[in-house]
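[agent] plan:
  1. take the single chain provided in the ticket
  2. run structure prediction with default settings
  3. attach structure tokens to the ticket
  4. add a short note for the reviewer (M.T.)
[agent] executing step 1
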Amino acid sequence: MADFISNIAKGKIKYYAELSGGANDAFLVVLIETTGLETDATLKDYDDLLALLAGTSNEQTNQARKVISSVTITVDDTNDRVDIDVADQTYVALAGNTISAAIFCYEPDTTAGTDSTVIPLSKHDFVITPDSSDVNMVIATAGLQRAA
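[agent] step 2 finished; step 3 output follows
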């Protein structure tokens, strides 16, 4: 397994990151359990979170989805890329089933209450066996995602 950008989000990462934080939209992270986790080749083809979770992959629901409150976008003209970063995420007293992945998503309408509009942007390996202690998801120094 590896980190990847979902097919539906390629070339749009900066766009979705800029949109997040509005009145009814959000940039969020969803934890995925080890049991049933599909291959990267399968996961990257899902166009919405509802379809992704309808497969064999399961959301780890002992902890609420994290809404990312701040997204930093840096256009790097020297290196011809855009870097997108978010703060490290802390999960307090994380319990439940073993986790293998974190899926970062864009939710265009938080009032809709449906995963069919939530767009999976990227998957990151995040292997953790919860034991009710606090867990800090450290985002890479280079940032969450890079569009080149």
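[agent] step 4 note for reviewer: Residues 4-147 form one domain.
[agent] ticket updated
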